[in-house]
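Re: that chain you flagged

S.,

Sorry for the slow reply, it's been a week of failed gels. I finally had a moment to sit down with the sequence you sent. For the record, here it is as I used it:
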Amino acid sequence: MPIHPTAIIDARAEIDSTAEIGPYVVVDGAVRIGPRTRVMAQATILGWTELGADNVVHPTAVLGGDPQDLKYAGAPTYLRIGDRNVFREHMQVHRGTAPESATVIGNDNYFMAASHVAHNCHIGNQVILVNGSMLGGHVEVNDQAIISGNCTVHQFCRVGRLSMMRGMSRSSRDVPPFCILDELHVVRGINRVGLRRAGMSVERIRAIQRAFARLFGSAGNLSLRVAALEEGEVSDDVRELIDFIRGSKRGVAAGPRQRQVQSDD
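Prediction finished late last night. Pasting the structure tokens below so you have them in one place:
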């Protein structure tokens, strides 16, 4: 049965005929649920939330709740979710704060149990949030990043593509693409395993490694090092890294403090 008889569905909700709504689910608000999306028992979907196709919402997950922001005054705000995402038990995603603003989630992401996505975050594609990880408001996470267990990201920070935050690490600065981040916004090296799994060639990975060694291998002025790096020929991946650093408003996570930069774990 597509909609279980014990589910409570708001009259304003629009649910595709191929979607599946499990026992004791609560859908409260002008929610839209797309084709083949499965909402399992006791999950809750609230407010102005849109889910695309083939998503899976596990028991006790809460999507589209009011933002945990004292500035929120009850105006319509949104949560927009793409396709093929998985939301595990007890995880939460909140809507935007300012009127008509939105939290946006792309495609093929995996949000593990008790992870938290705050208001106005923008999540790309193929991102993984591991158990207990937390994103503050307005955080941007780019494609294929991995945020490990119990990690925290400060509001307004960015997490670069194909980066990985080690378990229990935290950052109040931007996390560069392709890196491994440890402890308090400390760059340890490049995410070599992740880059290989993403299909990068040895040559591309070596170019990224050389750039990281120049930028983060020891203490120094990062802006000067970026300028020096640009004096030579740079690959597309290194250009992405440079552009990310130049676009930072909060500052970029630093290199090692005690241990030498490593290429992987």
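What I noticed first: The mean pLDDT is 95.

Talk soon,
D.
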